[in-house]
What does this fold into?
Amino acid sequence: MRRQAIPELTYLQAISDGLREEMRADESVFCLGEDIGAFGGAFKVTDGFIEEFGEQRVWDTPLAENAIIGTAVGAAVEGLRPVCEMQFADFISCGFDQLVNVAAKLHYRQGLAVPITVRLPSGGGFSGGPFHSQNPEAWFLQAPGLKVVAPSTAEDAKGLISAAIADPNPVVYMEHKHLYRRVKGEVPEGRFQTPLGEARLAREGTDLTVITYGAMVLTALEATDDLDGASVEVLDLRTLYPYDRDAVLASVRKTSKVVVVQEATRSCGVAAEIAALIAEEAFEDLDGPVVRVTTPDVPIPFSPPLERAVLPQVDDVREACRELLAY
Amino acid sequence: MASTPATAKGTAGDTEVREARLTPDDRRALLRYMLLMRATEERALTLYRQGKVPGSFYDGRGQEATAVGPAFALGPRDRACILHRDLGAHLVRGVTPGRVLAQMMGRATGVTGGRDGNMHFADHQLGCVQMVSMLPDMALVTCGLGIAFQMRGEPRVAMTWFGDGATANGQWHEAMNVAGVRQLPVVFVLENNHWAYSTPNEREFAVDPVERAGGYGFPGVKIDGNDVEAVFQAAADACARARSGGGPTLIEAETMRMHGHGAHDDMSYVPKHMFEEWERRDPIRTYEERLSADGIDVEQVRASVAEELERETKWALEQPMPDPHTATLGVFADGDPELGDGQAPWSRWSGEEAGDS
It folds into this structure.
């Protein structure tokens, strides 16, 4: 069946749309989380869901993150496909035990699939402060058994939520709050999946590659749109685990210069992993050091000038690219 | 110490519960599973001392009745998350002693194929989900199983076991609360064996956990955890109530951990008189006396268990170690392997009522 393009959904509408399509198509899919029912979710991703699907399939849970993830694991091994919402990505710390100790390891230990999706509204840029702005994706990369995705476009937001629900493993779905209403794009109607583990070339180029994901894809595109005539490739990872090694290495071999950009803090993050891969596998292809642009190792401050000072800005990316191009 | 017979009827409002009857064969089976648990664990301890069991060793000596009794109440399509002191529950569901011993020795044909050790196993093809060391994490997973049954309108039960120490953890509260809010078809079996590793009850909680059940909106019953029929009866009542939409039950089975937390633990912190008291209440010996008085041939059961264990041990010792090349396989699932149904030896499930679970 040919998919029809419809004009412009926001990133947030695309997530809702994907989720709604999956719930309509498959009775085993259900949502659980805090304030997702009558209120429609803190960000309104599940707005109207309780009216359409009822309170059994749109469960307003008690304020208990381990309960959200733990009960999702139980329901999943009994054949349901739960989609958990953490009200903010930051609150995953309160459900971390169930995610990394129970959900992530069950298949390796017991051979039992745990098809749960955990949605994490993440990221900063709007004075959320230290507990409503974090990008905790690297935590999950140290918990084998979890897949992690981070869409940057409306189309991928829909395609990846569907793929996450279909996958028989626990998938952490990072949805960047700053993209919710800022990003719009054409999104095909009907059900479709963006394959897990496949990066997307956001822009082709030949002089330098920016490798990034989530909200930083926009930042990278803006920073390199007109960069002294340089041809800059932007690779959107989309899936952070298992990430697209082939796409990363192919781009490095093409441009020989790499800037890795992440909004998360610096140490042992996705950018560090990508830089390490390039150092191991593509050292001979490099014409300069791999450069990281990240938030420094600091909690995310509240006040706008402080927050701007730590989150990677367009100028930071531009400057890093300029320096590397001149290397 | 008086044991209060568990009558969920008294606390379950107008929800009707069935009387749980045990035939002579059922009673023989209860004894058999308790004996098999003890014999398997004794053999495993020997293998551990011979250096054949890597890592550490944990058992449930003295807790055979709290393991076997509740599991015996489960129907084939019910589900369970079993704790590390409850080998007997796995045996009831159909795991063979040979696979248990192979599991403890890290063999390829152990229940987890060497992926996890000691009592950290469960056979999903027998309807069980494997515990983790963080306690009582599986109480929440059990609630999730119950949510699936509830959403689909199925008359099925999810059961889990946890210890006295686990009731001090925040996830215990989350599980009790969720079960109460949704009135889930869940049976919580609290094995109060008096010691959370070396920490006694009075340092774990100020209020007996069974008294907290009411605060979560469902009944709690306290029973003699060394009386296998009392434990079974309480569990059967709780299961019947859950199955008919009456919600969760917390069963506190009072028992005693007669061995250390692990084989390395000499239990120097336990007063001697406690061992003496609980040795007198040994769940197997007391049940044997009861069955003998009722004319059941206990020796025959013992002999059959001994014979079975020899055969199973021989098999386990012949099993290969896992291939090191497989160590990195299976982190992710390719398909959706599902939970299967467990063995349900209680005669009720082979009778005319067997169709409703």
Observations:
- Strands of chain B lie at 79-81, 158-163, 186-192, 195-196, 199-200, 220-224, 249-254.
- The interface with chain A takes residues 79, 112, 115-116, 120-122, 124, 129-130, 132-134, 137-149, 151, 158, 170-171, 174-175, 177-178, 181, 330-339 of chain B (CB under 8 Å).
